[in-house]
Amino acid sequence: MKRVYASLLAVTLLALIFFTASGERLYRLGKPIVAVGRYGSLITTGEVVVPIDMVHEEDGRFYIYELSSERGYSFVIYTVKRVEIEIDRYDDEQRRVYLKTDAKPTAGTALAAAAKGKLADGMRVVLQR
After folding, report:
1. pLDDT of 20-73, one tens digit each?
2. According to CATH, what is the number of the domain 31-127?
3. Rounded to whole angstroms, how far apart are CA atoms 50 and 67?
4. Where are the domains of the chain?
């Protein structure tokens, strides 16, 4: 009977060590990988601009995904929030989009562009390295 308990204890300790050592890698499996961009604000005109790669189109509507972060146990957890936007005009030369918006977003807010996987509102994501 002692051998059974010792074996169970050993297996439990090995599992604990495995999940502790590889927890972040296991968390990252299956999560969309995103590149990060930021809102910009043109100082001269006050217009809000977004990198063109950060704009997502679904069913004829345009969206951006804002990134928020919170501290997890051993690493930072990132979540996306889908925000509908109206596009005023495109600047293909500088690869950016001018937004038509009443509520001006804060310049510097982090945005997500899906590098791998499809994004959805409230989804947890992994930043591209």
Report:
1. 766 666 666 777 778 787 766 555 566 778 888 888 888 888 888 888 888 877
2. 2.40.420.20
3. 14
4. 1-29, 31-127
